[in-house]
Amino acid sequence: MFERFTKDARAVVEGAYAHAEGDGARSVDAEHLLLALLDREGSRASFALSALGLAEPEARERVRRDVREARRRAGLTRADADALAGLGIDVSQIVARVEEVHGVGAMSGDRGRGTGRAGWSSGGRRPGFGRGAREVLERALRVALARRDRGIGDEHLLLALTVLPGVAGEVLADHGVTFEGVSRVCPAARSAAG
After folding, report:
1. 3-state secondary structure at position 26
2. Residue ranges under compositional bias (Gly residues) (predicted)?
């Protein structure tokens, strides 16, 4: 599948690895792909994000902050937290107690900031994609095929993030970035260039 990725989409994947590495994460997650998309400039996805209200660095930083906060909740969406609240479980209370004992971000699934590649696995090898990131990549392929695009661009990754359940899609929707909006501001077809 990666041979079909444009240079912009490949750059997002590399950026996601860098974010995962910086977090000391065990795997590359959908949230890392979103963070890498936010870093991009001059690509179709960055144009779409800008057109949908995330042009300013402050706006993108708010998205990053919301992703970090969700990761602190062990990646639970608000819908997950609400469902647990219905069962009498206060997620924010649990997070506070765990962080009191183990430190801020203990529930994020990361091994700690700045651990680098050696912290990922023996031999310093890169981790694989987590289930959420794999679903994004697979959905991006489906989106590209449905749109009859020859290459998979970073806009396809963005579109995939908007339709899949989870933290990345919830955060994007909270900031006005939806599948319909991205589809509206991105051209209906793209060339295989890039």
Report:
1. coil
2. 115-127
Q: What is the dihedral of CA 114, 115, 116, 121, to 10 degrees?
A: -160
What contacts 24+ positions apart, CB below 8 Å, involve 18-22? 20/120, 20/127, 21/116, 21/117, 21/120, 22/113, 22/114
Quick one: pLDDT at residue 36?
97
Q: Which residues of the chain have a pLDDT value below 50? A: 111-122, 188-194
Q: What is the pLDDT of residue 90?
A: 73
Rg from Cα positions in the chain: 17
DSSP annotation of 145 reads H
- What is the fold of 2-185? Double Clp-N motif (1.10.1780)
Cα–Cα distance between 38 and 9 in angstroms, integer? 13
What integer pLDDT is reported at residue 188 of this predicted model? 46
* pLDDT given at position 121: 45
